[in-house]
Amino acid sequence: MAENTSSPLRAWSWIPTLYFGQGIPYVVVMTVAVVMYKNLGISNTAIALYTSWLYLPWVIKPLWSPLLELLGTKRHWIVGLQFIIGAALALVALTVPGTDFFRWTLAVFWLLAFSSATHDIAADGFYLLALPPHQQAAFVGVRSTFYRLAMISGQGALVWLAGTLQSRFGDAARAWAVVFWLIAAGFIVLALYHLVVLPRPAGDRPTPPATAPWQSYAAVFGEFFRKPHLLSMLGFLLFYRFAEAQLVKLVTPFLLDPRTDGGLGLTTQAVGLVYGTAGVLALTIGGIAGGWLISRYGLKKMLWPMAIAINAPNVVYVLLAWLQPQSWLVIGTALCIEQFGYGLGFAAYLVYMMMVAAGTHQTAHYAICTGFMALGMMLPGMPAGWIQEQLGYANFFAWVCLATLPSLVMTALIKVDPAFGKKA
Asked: CB–CB of 39/162 below 8 Å?
């Protein structure tokens, strides 16, 4: 039965938990898995290659997003997928202590990644259906904040807990199994909670297929690929984070590897604190600052400062690899500088995607942009571990600094509406 969903108090009962739940499986697949595999002795080459493939569901999710319009309600998709995600997390806990854990956990992470990407589509669509436009704008900061809190919980609290349990048990596999059992139990509780509290908006119902649904479907994609300046636009979407895509796969291994191997020799707990907590807070502050600056001065004026902000701080990793400082304060400060710059520079990327998607079929076109965004992270990240093992950490980070050039070239080539993003 449909119900009134316009009460702000009612919205507070489900928006924070929905977007916290959206963030957890993503950070588990993209970041926590890297730490776990490093703790379990997997090589940097294998970690970077196979975990980069896990971006694929987010690359291709626009291909099946129309199915969520045709089959069932967004509410049913959300709750059902949360139960599936909980079950997948439990499967990781079951398989990680086994002798062939790498193959089996990767298979489960694939299931988790596809479920998470589909959950993203349903959650974002439900948000638009359940709230009137003025509340959508009012709660955009809330959903972003709780998504970021999920990042901190995953990269920070869960990694710290795994390190603590590893010290207590003396067994990394057992420690990570306990962590994944706890996440699985939490997700099942979340699914049960949303089964009760999610509203039932009148507009949340299957959309009858058009007379020729596949022609309409193809027309949406065709319209996107007829946009002006298509090549420079796609180049920017794919290469703006070319250096960052390689860097992010090796930061955690670098922090964990012993100093004799060129790393910083931090404990898993320390990584959870300095990178997963302080670093994500700096990333969040950078993102907020970036959004404010664009709203004040416009995307065109802020594009170059933000392109430099996302790329220039990568040099801190060259310094860390050369100097190998032992102070947590020095390491944490360097990580926060880089993460703040990343958050600041990424704001320009997000607003550019909004500009590209503006117009007819805005939701579908934005989803296509996010697919190219994920592809731009997946492809460069795949060989990053092999490159690092050939060059060593110091030379790898120097290569990352050189790899910022495609980002700067594409920034110079794109066309930006001078008024876009600036508050009227």
From this structure: yes
Residue extents of the structural domains in the chain: 10-201, 230-424
List the one residue out of 344, 348, 349 whose CA is nearest residue 237: 349
Query: Is pLDDT above 90 for 220?
Result: no
Mean pLDDT of 291-299: 82
Q: What is the pTM of this model?
A: 0.76
Q: What is the DSSP track for 221-237?
A: HHHHTTSTTHHHHHHHH
Q: Specify the 3-state DSSP secondary structure of 53.
A: helix
Look at the domain 10-201 and name its fold.
Growth Hormone; Chain: A; (1.20.1250)
Give dist(CA 343, CA 335) in Å, integer.
12
Query: What's the fold here for domain 230-424?
Result: Growth Hormone; Chain: A; (1.20.1250)
Q: Is residue 121 within 8 Å of residue 68, measured between CB atoms?
A: yes
The pLDDT tens digits for 244-286 are 999 988 988 899 899 999 999 988 888 888 887 788 788 888 8
Give pLDDT tens digits for 309-334.
Answer: 999 999 999 999 999 999 989 999 99
